[in-house]
Amino acid sequence: MPRSPLPPSAQPTQTEAAHIRDDVAFAQASPYGPLAEAIPASAELGFYVHVPFCRKRCYYCSFNTAPLEDRASVDRYVRSVVTEIGLLATAPLNQRRPIIATVFLGGGTPSLLEPEELAAILEAIRDGFVLAPDVEITVEANPESVSSEKLAAYRVAGVNRVSLGVQSLDDSILPTLGRLHDARGAREAFVAAREAGVANVSVDLMYGLPRLDVDGWRRGVTAVLDWEPDHVSAYGLTLDAGSLWGAAGAPSLPAEETTVAQYRGLCGATAERGYEHYEISNWARPGFRSRHNQIYWRRAEYVAAGPGGCGFVGDVRYGNTKPLARYGTLIDEGRLPIDTFERLTDRQAVGERLILGLRTVDGVPANLLTERAAADGAIARVLESWRERGLLIGENGRTWLSEEGFLLSDALFVELL
Question: What residue numbers bound the domain in which 188 lies?
Answer without folding.
Answer: 24-342
